[in-house]
Amino acid sequence: MRKLSNKWLSHQNVTKQTLGALCKSNWILGIFIFALLLIAVGLYFHCADDVESMDGLAAVGVTLLFGCVCFVVPKLNYIFSLRRQEIRITWTQIVFLVSFGIWIATIVSLIGITHMPNGNIIIAIGGSVLSWIFQDTIKSVAAFFYLRANGLLRIGDWIQVPAQQIDGVVKTISLTTVTIENWDTTTSAFPIYILHSEHFKNNQKMWTGKTYGRQMLKTFTLDTGWIHPLSEEDCERLKKNLNIDSSFKDKFLKSKKLNAEVFRLYIYYWLMNHPHVSQEPRLIVRWLQQTQEGMPLQIYAYIIDCTLAPFEWQQSQIIEHFLKALSWFDLQLFQTPSGYDTSNSNINMVENRADYRKNQNDYATLS
Fold it and tell me: Which domain range does residue 273 map to?
């Protein structure tokens, strides 16, 4: 039976997959058959002789049938998630929800609560209590259909939920729960209503190259003490060393222009000609509001290579070229002074410069 179950589960036909899930466990298959027999017997006697004792059998049969649905749906949902069969995932959850509703309606009808004194009040109170207990589940069900109907969540999507520190790929989706494989190889499972009530980002379109690229946003704070006008010697040196169009050199490399201004224009033109940087939707190299540390220069660009390793590689190369070009223009990044900077500054706190090299004789003395 187990071999036949695995064969049917691997089939593309939904009916055979359902039978395979039922046959996965012999006792579940037996319960399913027994439930069908109970329902058939209960309905027969109820319709023929109106025997109230058969209502109990019908209630037991519906309960067992719903239990089988609870067993089969997760099995099918797991298979559909592996194959990314989005429509089938939605339908399995609809079947589960409908079967639950039928079970509740049948139980209420067969027990005859509506015919009891104050039966409607009992149903209202019971419904209120259950709604309070399962409020997260109800919100998750509503969020599931909202997200699926609007195409906001699919298997394999890379999503980020900053408030929950979730950042990874969607592995499974059920009526109430989403399972994520994070980039650090851990797994997170959380109620699906979180994606409806809180902000989350779906990066899938960008990741699969359906946008202009992946955003690079880096800010570098330049030390204002190094900003000065270019001299004639500086211009001649830059014209020889800069590997950029001659039109840029003729237009911008002029004496008395600030080195910071020419540096910003150089970085912009260099990025414009970079094969891995997109000029759409925007490419900006801009100054931000001055701070106590210096003048922040920000690069706002989109790298065409969107997957993790190529993106980080290209971003690192751009940053390294930025740092290299700083020295060409006699600029320097701001850095909070360390103990080494303080002891070797122009304001000497001690007579001799600090020596940070380890003295082997000191170790010999200690030993």
Answer: 214-335
